[in-house]
Write a sequence for this structure.
């Protein structure tokens, strides 16, 4: 057994070179002054101070608002679906889960472009409305189109973990609840919901992390009118060339996400 | 057996010949090495030059301006006779001493150039370059969908254009036209003034429907936007699909990018290079080139011959190129842009 341990060594080198070193660089850039040379540096907290300006705080608030909204919608729509799937016969369960995952086989960009075709002013939905004699609605490049795109893209990440925890549930517990006189609502609230919480938390975590850091979907469906945290980091590195500020924003985002994950974990252990 | 030998001999000859032409070009009196991007000159124009002068044009390609500068620096300004490249890289080449001063007595057609494109930052005294095409982002609008007669950037702020303006996504360009509409330079360096421009741009937010670099013209064609600020290739595509669209040459002045021709400092055949530049500056030759490339005509004398969509009217007398600014100004631009986007949705 012991000699297999050596097999891990190449991975250590790989991880050090491609994960640890870049992370150290980001931290170093975030705390140093101007310019992209790390050779001559002086430490500063200016990059973080810059972020405190309302312009940039707004960006992060907006990203989080969008992330939370998407997550809540995914939960509201995804939980019932996962619940229904878990009640079906085993054969149809496998089939229904396949249906949920199939869209994920297609490239995200293609799915987003499909939405653009559906929602645009001359799109399929508006053409249908016109055929039915109704006034066309302008849907593209609005909050609506962005949310639709995000929810559609990230829904499976909510459904699958909830479905897993629901289907693993011991059915006899539900029967016991009924035996003890609980009605359907009480059974759901006190037994099923409680037992599915780990799945729900997993789903929330995945959807939230994905939607907070996304920038392609808002860019395409929002008509480039969204400046989210991902776009801000991209602009700092690519167009402005202020790597120090870009690194500082990346660090702030990373810290917030780590805090969020710890909070989730705490909730998870408390439930148990 | 014999035929195989012949082929081998032929191959060897070709190899020797081609390697010789690559290394020993300087020896050949009747050759001109043209160094630029792919598809910059129509073949008829090059053939016409050879027919007239007996000088063979050897077309050599680069992919990016940076590659060109690197190769030219390695050759210490030799190897190539005529180079066509972008404005900003020419400035660097001039600074590195890789560019020859033009002998204007050998270029009688020099006066055919449109002065709008002369005296730019990369060659303020027009000593080294001849402009060869310009890319100009312009406003295009659908007269049926708009109530205002758009004349300049300022009209984009008109209230009647609510939720009907599409913009390209380069923040220096968009803030640049805001500065122009306020009477400043696109390359303004004062953070105070850039912040003012940012405030003005925020006021445009209610009118903005779309900010995007790719296929921006589509929004104008499918009716999502009534007015759009588009890059040159997008303007051309929009007009091809819908000739009824109106193109505006903003009265406040243009922001453009210019491609320039220059002769490297140690060009092996500088005489032929001057002849070539003079030949290209002929009205009919220039017109053929710009029609082929689809860039704006920089040869004034060719204005009447070239596709009229590629001619900037005489009423426009001011044009500027976006240059690099100080880090401080760059930050002010980026902050103003973030505020603008924040106000948009």
């Amino acid at each position: 057994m012991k000699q297999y341990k050596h097999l891990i060594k190449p991975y250590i080198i790989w991880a050090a070179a491609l994960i640890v070193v870049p992370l150290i660089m980001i931290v170093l850039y975030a705390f140093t002054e101007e310019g992209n040379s790390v050779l001559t540096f002086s430490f500063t907290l200016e990059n973080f101070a810059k972020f405190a300006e309302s312009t940039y705080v707004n960006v992060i608030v907006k990203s989080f608002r969008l992330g939370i909204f998407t997550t809540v919608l995914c939960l509201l729509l995804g939980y019932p679906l996962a619940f229904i799937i878990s009640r079906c016969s085993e054969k149809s369960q496998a089939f229904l889960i396949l249906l949920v995952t199939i869209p994920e086989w297609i490239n995200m960009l293609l799915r987003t472009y499909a939405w653009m075709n559906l929602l645009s002013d001359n799109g399929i939905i508006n053409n249908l409305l016109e055929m039915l004699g109704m006034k066309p609605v302008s849907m593209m490049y609005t909050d609506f189109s962005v949310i639709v795109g995000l929810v559609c893209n990230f829904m499976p990440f909510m459904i699958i973990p909830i479905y897993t925890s629901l289907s693993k549930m011991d059915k006899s517990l539900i029967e016991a609840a009924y035996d003890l006189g609980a009605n359907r609502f009480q059974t759901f609230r006190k037994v099923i919901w409680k037992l599915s919480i780990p799945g729900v938390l997993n789903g929330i975590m995945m959807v939230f992390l994905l939607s907070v850091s996304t920038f392609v979907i808002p860019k395409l469906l929002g008509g480039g009118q969204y400046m989210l945290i991902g776009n801000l980091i991209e602009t700092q590195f690519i167009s402005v060339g202020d790597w120090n500020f870009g690194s500082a924003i990346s660090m702030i985002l990373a810290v917030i996400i780590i805090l969020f994950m710890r909070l989730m974990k705490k909730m998870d252990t408390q439930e148990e | 057996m014999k035929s195989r030998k012949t082929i081998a001999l032929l191959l060897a000859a070709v190899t020797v010949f081609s390697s010789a032409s690559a290394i020993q070009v300087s020896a050949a009196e009747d050759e001109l090495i043209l160094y630029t991007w792919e598809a910059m000159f129509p073949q008829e124009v090059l053939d016409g030059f050879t027919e007239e002068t007996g000088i063979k044009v050897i077309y050599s390609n680069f992919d990016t301006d940076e590659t060109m500068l690197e190769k030219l620096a390695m050759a210490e300004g030799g190897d190539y006779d005529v180079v066509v490249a972008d404005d900003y890289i020419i400035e660097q080449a001039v600074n590195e001493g890789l560019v020859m001063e033009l002998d204007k007595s050998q270029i009688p057609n020099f006066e055919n150039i449109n002065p709008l494109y002369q005296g730019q930052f990369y060659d303020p005294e027009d000593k080294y370059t001849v402009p060869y095409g310009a890319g100009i982002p312009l406003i295009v609008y659908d007269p049926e969908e708009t109530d205002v007669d758009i004349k300049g950037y300022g009209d984009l702020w008109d209230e009647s254009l609510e939720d009907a303006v599409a913009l390209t996504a380069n923040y220096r360009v968009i803030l640049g036209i805001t500065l122009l509409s306020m009477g400043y330079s696109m390359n303004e360096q004062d953070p105070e003034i850039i912040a003012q421009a940012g405030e003005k741009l925020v006021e445009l937010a209610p009118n903005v429907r779309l900010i995007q670099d790719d296929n921006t013209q589509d929004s104008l064609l499918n009716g999502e936007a009534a007015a759009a600020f588009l890059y040159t290739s997008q303007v051309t595509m929009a007009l091809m699909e819908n000739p009824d669209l109106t193109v505006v040459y903003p009265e406040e002045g243009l922001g453009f990018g210019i491609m320039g021709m220059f002769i490297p400092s140690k060009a092996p055949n500088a005489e032929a290079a001057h002849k070539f530049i003079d030949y290209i500056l002929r009205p009919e030759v220039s017109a053929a080139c710009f029609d082929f490339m689809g860039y704006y005509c920089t040869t004034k004398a060719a204005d009447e011959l070239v596709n009229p969509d590629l001619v900037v009217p005489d009423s426009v007398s001011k044009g500027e190129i976006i240059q690099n600014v100080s880090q401080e100004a760059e930050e002010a631009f980026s902050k103003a842009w973030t505020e603008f986007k924040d106000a948009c949705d």
Q: What stands out?
A: Confidence is low (pLDDT under 50) at residues 14-27 of chain B. Chain B is about 40% helix and 15% strand.
